[in-house]
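subagent[fold] <- orchestrator: predict structure for attached chain, return C-alpha cells only, no commentary.
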Amino acid sequence: MATINGYVWRTSLAPMGASHVLPVNADVREGAGVNAGNVVSLSVQEDLAERNIDAPDDLAAALSAAGVRTRFDAMAFTHRKDGSAPSSMQNAMKLV
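subagent[fold] -> orchestrator:
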C-alpha cells in the first residue's frame, strides 16, 4: 500500500536496474492532487492481503470449456488480474 497526500492505493514496487521504482500513474496523481515532477510526502507499507480477481464470465466459460480453468486460477495474480486484457488472454491461451 502506498499513500501520497492522504490518497491510498494498492501497488507494487517494480524492479528497475539495481533498484526499484514505485509507479504513480495518472489516476493516482489525479487522486492525490499532484502532477508529474511535484515533490510529495509518500508512505509505503507492506500489503499482506491476498489479491484475488473474478474472471469475467466469458473468459471463465472459455477456460472451463478448454479444461484449463484450474491452471488459470493457479497463475500469479499479475498474470490474471484483468481477464479482458490481451496479456491475460495470451497467458490463458498458453494453457491450452
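orchestrator: received. Logging for downstream: The helical segments are 26-32, 57-65, 69-73, 77-80, 86-94. Residues 57-94 form one domain.
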